[in-house]
Design a protein that fits this description.
CATH architecture of the largest domain in chain A: Orthogonal Bundle
CATH architecture of the domain at 500-643 and 810-883 in chain B: 3-Layer(aba) Sandwich
CATH topology of the largest domain in chain A: MetI-like fold
Shape of chain A: globular
Radius of gyration of chain B: 36 Å
CATH class of the domain at 500-643 and 810-883 in chain B: Alpha Beta
Helix content of chain A: over 70%
Oligomer: heterodimer
Structural class of chain A: mainly alpha
Radius of gyration of chain A: 27 Å
Distance between the termini of chain B: 55 Å
């Protein structure tokens, strides 16, 4: 409240100074002082957020990093510093690399499909046609559903004995039931299918909001100049959408790396280790056996991968945008 | 400390690498003091994690200090390597200076004597003169063993008189007065350029006895030397108790008589030494000879003019009555002194050495008579009093070990800073934890092992060591036992009733409905409300672990599944004190003998520090006292026993048309299969994909369920159904296991008797397939039901066998967190004792409780209501439990068994031979075991 008082007092003073016309010199120091108090004010305003951030994210992150060099004996056996052993074991015993490759592959494929399908869906929903507003509202349903619930439903749908999917496929003339979750390829199709079903609408909504905020005059101008619909989309709409796509892509990549529940429920990593991911491994280590240190080491490495990947992703998309701008 | 600029006192190699850390020290001590011979034993003994132990051992091996080339006898599984100190890594000069003789030996670092010489020596001269004799003999020995190839790393010496150990100086020695204050140690160190350690002859003898002689296995032992003087060395856990100033054990100057006014050379009256020491015996002998009581003594006196204690001993041995009388009197005095010492220290063994002790058994017998007569019965219950085992060699052997101990423990300078660190950290943990008496075990262990030698050298008693070393921060290594805040001892009597107790329980897997049904009865009987929180399996495990990891768990009672318990042995309250305290069992029929022994031992009985051990007498009737006596504890009471049982569609098996069809096809009656061959035939018979009927379910999806299927098959084919044996041998790729897996895989892939999707099925998939009428048989953990649109009935049978029935079984137990206050624990105990009682289990039967008591099973067989609901499930469950095979006992069970879950699933869903999958699985399990610090191997 002292700040508020200050502001109130100062305003007439400034008006007065300006009124006198000779305020430049007398104002300068006061201005500087105000800056100082402003920055203090800024810190004050940021402080709650900062405190929450430190407590919930930074401190936890530092703890995870610290813990990754220990074998934590949570049950009366004491902690032991083990240096890089947890990291070494992650590679030699807990198959970090294959798990990571599978995870990356899953992210690349599912996010790729979601982006393409999301753009298509978004663009087609952007037309102001009756029914599109309802469709846009319905888009929220898949990603508003708890992933675990969707996974359970999918599991039932995919069941080779009583699942709907097989039932309908059979009515199209399929004779042998498909054991969706018993073969790596079909298991991946199921997982990616679920993910695409769940998250494409999210990309579509981002694209939709992007399209609605775009200026229409450029597209109009192109049309007048005789550009085809494809050309208009390729050279005008898409480049202008790039910032929105970047947001969607980055968010989706990060979310996708964290995907865990659908794997646990649909396949639990099977068949064999066919759909095993880093997250399942961390879950097993930390949540089932309380091998906190070992799990933390793997989590730290995943974090590093993500930290390296995000700027790379942003840069790539940014480069693409620059390129487009140059051409047009 | 002598301020000479000499080399570091420690072993030159020990300043290198991590052998200088506290853990390295603990490991080295465990090996060299013979406390542990294998890596696993070291881990158990020191409380360090097995991976740290393995690393430290490898370092010590690479430094050339330790050798592991020898295998010990296998106890099943790969024979562990025996660790021993490499003797050739250095040499020791051991010097035993006696009043009239001198022994010098060259020994190796394992304490073996390689070469020894003796000479006579007159000690009562100027120290320079005597030392010149001594070093000339030492030089001879060094010269004679020059080709031994290893450097002399230190010198150990025993002197016949008081020595200030820390300074290495003789202090007012009565037998060699000229040596008072002479810096013997720096003399030797300056001459040989290696560190030296000097101690009095009695301590050196005691050290020899405790390392290589009669006191070897004793926690507390006493070595008494009866020679010219009388002295005793006290050994605690293999090291010498020196006392605050280094004169602990100087029993010769204890006053034993008010009447006999012989003045001791120490200047006081009535000292033991003055009345029973060698000089006194000699004097008495002269008097006896002069009185003409002994012809033998007269003769000796006449020929030599003097009589020594040894003369008396010799004559006594030849049966001279006067000599025996003299010695008997001495033995009596020594015995009465020892009785006091025995009452004070309660040693396991006393050894008697020195010249007089050579008089033979009757001298020892005299001492025994006094000690056994005068000491407390408890102190003498297993006390042994024996002559010194090493006899004359104890001095050189002790001197050898004196030097080895010094070389292998930390530098004095390093010690000071380390002690500061220990004290600082213990202050920290005290501020943090407050109550330190729990976890004394851990404290004692690290105190006893990593710091034990040095602390007792400084004269700290072990209790104090436990306090200050409770939290050791040494070098890079950080390992301190957690302090369990608020953990408390079991209450002896029952305190006020708590208003309510909270319990964490499993919803579907161990049947929460059954518990809920008897809570009103519990309230009526005990007057306590129990609030139950039910959770599904994964969530339950997470909650249980998270809560038990805190110092104040939110629940008073936990339900634990068998794979979790090995991880939790240190945080679950041991229940023996409760089970054996009748005041806590009022109104409850505890009757532990009624529990099915196998279920009880598999579920609740653990060696807390070696949780992977199975109880050795798993067939014996449950007896808490016997369990504790065998080093095990009861960590809970079993509540729900699950076993894999087979359910079949009775309507199909009894249908006349099916029977006729079966007989027509196979030429025998359709019957519930007993063997796998019959099972396969029946399953093939019922497999009719076109009408959506299959032979059986299998739960071959990745998870605990495919492991349980697999271990059942392996056991039934004659393999080890635990899959990992007690020696951490992985038995998944044995011929029996391979045959079992091949059959399991064939059921799915070759004969296709399972509905599609078996390789992604879990126990609930199997349940719903059977329930919806899609299979004729199933194997699951609980009674099955048929959905309303399937008209039929269910029968149960044992899971079939190849050579034996070995269904998987696992039991839930109710446990109490150690960290609760004692009154809460007492009441929580009452609740779990009541819930697992025969009465409660019987009452829960209709709610599908799988009992753990014979009486409850008997009740189930009699009850018409139970039979109506569950058919013959309970008799089959009881049979299955009797022949069942439990789980491997390993910490981090999910990690260890994950490769098995994957391997079995791979084999079942692949297309080739399952053999490579299992070989990979076995090595995968071994890898995880090793990363967790076990020494896994492929069995």
């Amino acid at each position: 409240m002292s700040v508020a008082n200050e502001v109130e007092l100062r305003l007439p003073a400034r008006a007065f100074g300006r009124g006198r016309g000779g305020g430049a010199t007398s104002c300068a120091p006061r201005h500087r002082a105000r800056l100082g108090s402003d920055s203090r004010m800024a810190w004050l305003l940021v402080a709650p957020t900062l405190a929450v951030l430190v407590a919930m994210t930074i401190a936890a992150g530092v703890y995870v990093f610290w813990v990754s060099f220990y074998r934590i004996g949570s049950f009366g056996t004491g902690n032991q510093a083990v240096g890089w052993l947890n990291y070494r074991d992650a590679f030699s015993t807990y198959d970090f690399l294959p798990d990571l490759l599978r995870t990356v592959g899953y992210v690349a494929v599912s996010v790729g499909i979601e982006l393409v399908a999301g753009i298509a869906l978004g663009v087609s929903l952007a037309r102001r046609v009756r029914g599109n507003r309802l469709a846009a509202a319905l888009l929220i349903v898949p990603f508003a559903t708890t992933p675990a619930v969707s996974a359970l439903v999918f599991r039932s749908l995919l069941d080779p004995n009583y699942g709907w999917i097989d039932y309908y496929l059979r009515s199209f003339g399929l004779h042998q039931p498909i054991q969706w979750l018993s073969h790596p390829t079909t298991a991946w199709i199921s997982l990616i299918g679920l993910d695409v079903w769940e998250w494409t609408p999210f990309v579509a909504l981002v694209v939709l909001s992007g399209l609605q905020s775009l200026r229409t005059d450029v597209v109009e101008a192109a049309r007048v100049d005789g550009a085809s619909a494809l050309q208009r989309f390729r050279y005008i709409t898409l480049p202008m959408l790039t910032p929105f796509l970047a947001i969607a892509a980055v968010l989706r990549v990060i979310q996708s790396f964290k995907t865990f529940d659908i794997f646990l429920i649909l396949t639990n990593g099977g068949p064999g280790t066919g759909t095993e991911t880093v997250n399942l491994q961390i879950y097993r280590l930390v949540m089932q056996d309380f091998s906190i240190g070992q799990g933390a080491a793997i989590a730290v490495m995943l974090l590093v991968v993500l930290l390296l990947l995000t700027p790379l992703l942003l840069k790539t998309i940014g480069h693409y945008a620059e390129h487009e701008r140059g051409v047009s | 400390m002598s301020p000479t600029g000499r080399v570091s006192k420690r072993h030159p190699l020990l300043s290198q690498a991590a052998a200088g850390t506290a853990s390295g020290q603990a490991v080295l001590d465990a090996i060299r003091l013979g406390r542990a011979r294998t890596r696993r034993e070291i881990a158990v003994h020191t409380g360090l994690s097995a991976s740290i132990v393995a690393r430290r051992v490898d370092e010590l091996i690479s430094l050339g200090l330790v050798d592991d080339s020898e295998h010990t006898l296998s106890t099943g599984g790969r024979a562990p390597r025996r660790l021993r100190i490499r003797g050739e890594s250095g040499g020791i000069l051991a010097v035993d200076v006696g009043v009239s003789g001198l022994k010098v030996a060259r020994s190796d670092m394992a304490g073996r004597i390689l070469h020894q010489r003796e000479a006579s020596l007159d000690i009562d001269v100027e120290p320079e003169e005597a030392l010149a004799h001594i070093v000339s003999l030492m030089d001879e020995v060094v010269g004679a063993t020059a080709e031994a190839g290893s450097d002399i790393l230190g010198i150990g010496m025993g002197l016949p008189g008081p020595v200030a150990f820390d300074e290495g100086v003789a202090v007012a020695p009565p037998l060699m007065p000229a040596w008072d204050g002479y810096p013997v140690r720096s003399y030797l160190e300056d001459r040989y350029g290696v560190p030296a350690w000097i101690d009095n002859d009695v301590n050196v003898m005691a050290l020899g006895e405790v390392r290589a002689g009669g006191l070897k296995e004793c926690r507390v032992g006493i070595a008494v030397k009866v020679g010219t003087g009388i002295g005793a060395g006290v050994t605690v856990d293999g090291t010498i108790l020196r006392g605050a100033e280094g004169c602990a054990g100087d029993v010769g100057h204890i006053q034993v008589s008010e009447g006999e006014n012989e003045r001791c050379r120490c200047g006081k009256l009535g000292c033991l030494e003055a009345l029973a020491g060698g000089a006194a015996i000699g004097r008495a002998a002269v008097q006896a000879a002069e009185r003409g009581e002994s012809a033998m003594l007269e003769e000796l006196l006449a020929s030599r003019g003097v009589l020594s204690a040894e003369d008396v001993a010799r004559c006594a041995q030849r049966g001279d009555a006067a000599c025996m009388h003299i010695l008997d009197h001495a033995a009596e005095l020594i015995g009465s002194m020892l009785a006091t010492v025995v009452n004070t220290l309660n040693p396991a063994k006393v050894v008697i050495g020195g010249g007089v002790a050579q008089a033979g058994d009757f001298f020892i017998a005299g001492i025994r008579r006094q000690v056994y007569g005068r000491s407390l019965p408890l102190a003498t219950r297993s006390l042994r009093i024996d002559p010194c085992e090493l006899a004359g060699q104890s001095g050189v052997i002790g001197a050898t070990w004196l030097a080895i101990d010094g070389i292998y423990t930390k530098d004095p300078s390093a010690r000071a800073s380390e002690r500061r660190k220990i004290l600082a950290s213990s202050a920290r943990s005290q501020a943090k934890g407050g109550n330190m008496h729990e976890d004394q075990q851990g404290g004692l262990q690290s105190g006893g092992n990593s710091q034990g030698t040095e602390l007792s050298r400084r004269g700290f008693l072990k209790g104090a060591a436990a306090l200050s070393a409770g939290a050791v921060v040494g070098g890079k290594m950080m390992s301190y036992p957690r302090l369990r805040v608020g953990a408390s001892r079991p209450a002896a009597t029952l305190g006020p009733k708590p208003t309510s107790l909270s319990m964490l329980y499993a919803g579907n897997q161990s049947d929460g409905a059954a518990i809920a049904a008897v809570l009103p009865m519990l309230k009526h009987d005990l007057g306590v409300d129990v609030v139950v929180t039910n959770l599904a399996y994964d969530a339950l495990q997470q909650k249980t672990f998270a809560q038990l990891a805190t110092s104040s768990p939110a629940y008073d009672i936990f339900v634990c599944d068998t794979p979790w318990t090995p991880t939790l042995t240190h945080v679950l309250e041991p229940l023996t004190p409760y089970l054996t305290n009748s005041s806590l069992n009022k109104g409850i029929s505890i009757d532990v003998g009624d529990f099915i022994p196998k279920v009880f031992y598999d579920t609740t009985v653990y060696n807390v520090n070696q949780p992977s051990k199975h109880y050795p007498h798993a067939g014996a009737m449950v007896d808490p006292k016997a369990i504790v006596k065998n080093g095990f504890e009861i960590l809970g009471l079993p509540i729900q026993a699950n076993a894999l049982t087979m359910a079949y569609r009775k309507d199909l098996f009894e249908s006349a048309t099916e029977k006729a069809k079966f007989k027509a096809k196979y030429g025998r009656e359709l019957a519930v299969p007993v063997t796998w061959d019959e099972f396969l035939q029946v399953a093939q018979f019922f497999t009719r994909p076109s009408s959506k009927l299959y032979g059986t379910t299998l739960m071959a999806g990745v998870g605990d369920w495919d492991i349980d299927d697999f271990k059942t098959f392996v056991g039934s084919f004659g393999g080890d159904g635990h899959l990992i044996n007690d020696q951490f041998g992985v038995t998944v790729s044995t011929p029996e296991a391979m045959a079992a897996l091949q059959f399991y895989v064939d059921l799915i892939r070759k004969y296709r008797v399972t509905p599609p999707g078996a390789t992604s099925a879990s126990w609930d998939t199997a349940g719903s397939l059977f329930s919806s009428g899609q299979t004729a048989m199933t194997m699951n953990y609980s009674p099955q039901s048929l959905s309303s649109n399937v008209s039929g009935s269910i029968g149960y049978a044992m899971v079939p066998k190849k050579v034996t029935n070995a269904p998987h079984f696992g039991t839930w137990q109710l446990s109490i967190p150690m960290a609760k206050d004692s009154n809460t624990k007492a009441w929580a105990y009452r609740v779990i004792a009541w819930l697992t009682s025969g009465k409660a289990q019987t009452a829960m039967l209709t709610q599908e409780l799988h009992p753990t008591r014979n009486s409850a099973f008997a009740a189930a067989h009699k009850s018409a209501a139970v039979t109506k609901s569950f058919g013959n499930f309970y008799p089959i469950l009881q049979q299955s439990l009797a022949s069942g095979v439990g789980r491997a006992r390993v910490k981090d069970y999910s990690q260890v068994t994950q490769p098995i879950a994957v391997g079995v699933n791979n084999a079942a869903s692949g297309s080739g031979s399952p053999k490579p999958d299992m070989v990979k699985t076995a090595s995968g399990v071994v890898k995880v075991l090793n990363s967790l610090g076990y020494h896994g191997s492929v069995a």
